[in-house]
Amino acid sequence: MNKRNCIIGQSGGPTVAINASLAGIIQQAKKEGYEHIYGMINGIKGLLENTYMDLEEAIKNDDDLHDLKTSPAMYLGSCRYKLPDQSDDPVFEQLFHKFEELEITDFFYIGGNDSMDTVAKLSEYAKIMNSDIHFIGIPKTIDNDLMGTDHTPGYGSAAKYVASSMLEIAYDSSIYKLKSITIVEIMGRNAGWLTAASALARTAYSDAPDLIYLPEVPFDQEQFLDDIAKVFEKKRSVIIAVSEGIRNKEGNYLDQDSRYVKKDAFGHILHSGTGKVLETICFKRFKCKVRSIELNVLQRCAMHIASETDIEESFMIGSKAVGYAKDHTGVMVVIKRLSNDPYQSEAAIADVSKIANLEHKIPVNWINDAHNDITKELYEYMYPLIQGEVNVRYHNGIPSYINIRHLEK
């Protein structure tokens, strides 16, 4: 059998499940006798700076693997680095020189939409150079907005956190006998999957959130206020879930005129103010207690309330990626749903060039006609993904996560 060496990177925003995919790759690569398993520190940008580590040395036994699998964020660190569009850019030559130096046969990159762009570009350059390196993408994103897969690893755990937080907020908001509005701002630039997950908080004794607003449909301010008034006819406390990226009928984000607006390395608006904008609007109309809550990064790092289904699927696709790398390149490992009840899924592959730079949004027919809630179909799609709890080790009363001192260097 020919010698195999791989290098693995993580990129983009972190999730609770991305390290589970890394653990799956490492375990399977060891089983299949890889001579070297390298990890890029801070993704492709770190590799360009000659920063990488020996993962066989770092993850030595089953305990290390368990701690990696059940630790949030990114063990290898991350970056937001966009490869040039021109294949004659010297950065490609620099990267492939590094691959040659390390005798890399397989390249695994775990990330979201922009990370799949990296996999697609490296795969295309390899064809131009007649390189035998196989480039495999492994998906992750709490936003669930990657095309080609039923859902993305990381989404189920973030959805579980959103639903659990919404239920706890509902309990907190119920204690005072006064009129109030609570607005919960949830991540989601253009896709409302996470905000939709707030509906999973509903129980036989709590119907919060009362209203849900998603970016897939236009936001109407007057209709929003009328919706709240109708809820007030039935109860004194109104709880609203809203995506950070909701836009009016002209296509403008509610917070895009905010003095706090910023953009990331890829030009995406970093929203920080939708909830506050709506808080002001509601107070002016209803003159009652109004609070806005932004879940922010807590949605993506709460391993203590992760979904077992999410973690196990993430580990599974990492493991499967090693097998696919034998015969495939320029692909992303995807999750294929086989059934809802009982929930079953399997791994498959899709052409990464048909996934990169595209967005998977909620189908409009999964949003109610009033544009202020979701349908039963969307609820049933999300429900299996938050099932089960993860066995996290604790020490001195807090979670005992894997050592990440190497990221401080």
UniProtKB/TrEMBL annotation:
Compartments in which it is found: Cytoplasm
Assembly behavior: Homodimer.
Gene: pfp
HAMAP family: Phosphofructokinase_II_B2 (MF_01978)
Cofactor: Mg(2+)
Site location (Important for catalytic activity): 140
Catalytic activity: beta-D-fructose 6-phosphate + diphosphate = beta-D-fructose 1,6-bisphosphate + phosphate + H(+)
Site feature (Important for catalytic activity and substrate specificity) residues: 114
UniProt name for this protein: Pyrophosphate--fructose 6-phosphate 1-phosphotransferase
Classification lineage: Bacteria, Bacillati, Bacillota, Erysipelotrichia, Erysipelotrichales
Biological process, per Gene Ontology: fructose 6-phosphate metabolic process
Active site: 143 (proton acceptor)
Binding site for substrate: 141-143, 187-189, 244
Taxonomic source organism: Sharpea azabuensis
Presence of keyword Magnesium: yes
Keywords: Cytoplasm, Glycolysis, Kinase, Magnesium, Metal-binding, Transferase
Biological function: Catalyzes the phosphorylation of D-fructose 6-phosphate, the first committing step of glycolysis. Uses inorganic phosphate (PPi) as phosphoryl donor instead of ATP like common ATP-dependent phosphofructokinases (ATP-PFKs), which renders the reaction reversible, and can thus function both in glycolysis and gluconeogenesis. Consistently, PPi-PFK can replace the enzymes of both the forward (ATP-PFK) and reverse (fructose-bisphosphatase (FBPase)) reactions.
Residues annotated to bind Mg(2+): 113
Family listed: Belongs to the phosphofructokinase type A (PFKA) family. PPi-dependent PFK group II subfamily. Clade 'B2' sub-subfamily.
Residues holding diphosphate: 13
GO MF annotation, one: metal ion binding
The UniProt record lists the keyword Protein biosynthesis: no
